[in-house]
Design goal:
Layout lengths: L3 E6 L6 H15 L7 E6 L5 H8 L5 E4 L16 H6 L4 E4 L2 H6 L4 H13 L3 E6 L3 H5 L3 H13 L12 E4 L13 H16 L3 H6 L1 E5 L4 H8 L6 E4 L6 H11 L1
Parallel strand pairs: 1-2, 1-8, 2-3, 3-4, 4-5, 5-6, 6-7, 7-8
Helix pairs in contact: 1-2, 1-11, 5-7, 7-8, 10-11
The protein binds 2-phosphoglycolic acid.
The site of 2-phosphoglycolic acid has 13 residues, from strand 8.
Length: 253
């Protein structure tokens, strides 16, 4: 049975103090999920990874980075390498988030390189895919998702890397807008993604965790997280309040 992942993408938010408080509240609240089939992951800004590691070491909660360079080291001003993240015991990384694609011009090829670099280093990449409103309205959602997946699939050494990777379906029009995908819309795309993998390998498809992201909140989580192919959530805004983040997790259990 696939484990459910409840992941918080904190984006560029927080202060030393608010992060300290958020971590300790999540840590406390997560204790009641101890034996559930659920994995919490948080993605703080890089500068708070130290505090995150300090607070979460020895707990069942994992952490990761929102961004990193596919280069190993060198003259890349402002960038963070994978080995640096590993010093802070990051287990996961986000790859291909739509904000990186749209605001920072990360294209399919760069995202594929980042995915490979993370995966080669033993981190678990969460590959984000999703269509814009225009693309949905033009009826090309599946084509867009397929293009985003294939750009990664064609460069990985073996499909087996997806035994240690996660996909997040995040419709761009639902991110930070308060307008979530309906459970049917999300379920259709999740099933499409799983089917694409099933065309190559049935066991990889069956075990692949596919998260939903885009205005996931305590009041819409029950519907979305109950769908067969939805294996958890990647949560932005609502992950900044420990109560909401934990309430979303409760809806799954
Ligand atoms: P949101 O963000 O929950 O604020 O819509 C989700 C994400 O960007 O991962």
């Amino acid at each position: 049975m696939r484990k459910c992942i409840i992941a918080g993408n904190w984006k560029m938010n927080g202060t030393k103090e608010s992060v300290r408080n958020l971590l300790s509240s999540i840590k406390e609240g997560a204790k009641s999920f101890k034996n559930s089939n659920l994995q919490f992951v948080v993605f703080p800004p890089h500068v708070f990874l130290d505090e995150t590691e300090r607070q979460l070491s020895g707990t069942d909660i994992s952490w990761g980075a929102q961004n990193f360079s596919h280069h190993k080291n060198g003259a890349y001003t402002g960038e963070i390498s994978i080995s640096m993240l590993q010093e802070f015991h990051c287990r996961y990384v986000l790859v291909g988030h739509s904000e990186r694609r749209i605001l920072y011009g990360e294209n399919d090829d760069l995202i594929a390189s980042k995915f490979v670099a993370a995966s080669d280093a033993g981190l678990i990449p969460i590959l984000c895919v999703g269509e814009t409103l225009d693309e949905r309205q033009s009826g090309i959602t599946n084509q867009v998702i397929n293009r985003q997946l294939v750009s990664v699939l064609k460069v990985v050494s073996s499909l087996d890397v997806f035994r240690n990777a996660v996909i997040a379906y995040e419709p761009v029009w639902a991110i930070g807008t308060g307008m979530n995908a309906t459970k049917e819309q999300a379920a259709d795309v999740h099933a499409y993604i799983r089917n694409q993998f099933a065309n190559y390998d049935a066991s990889i498809a069956e075990n692949l965790q596919i998260l939903y992201g885009g205005s996931l909140k305590p009041d819409n989580a029950s519907d979305l997280l109950a769908m067969e192919d939805i294996d958890g959530g990647l949560i932005g805004g609502a992950s900044l309040k420990a109560d909401d983040f934990l309430k979303i997790a409760e809806k799954r259990t």
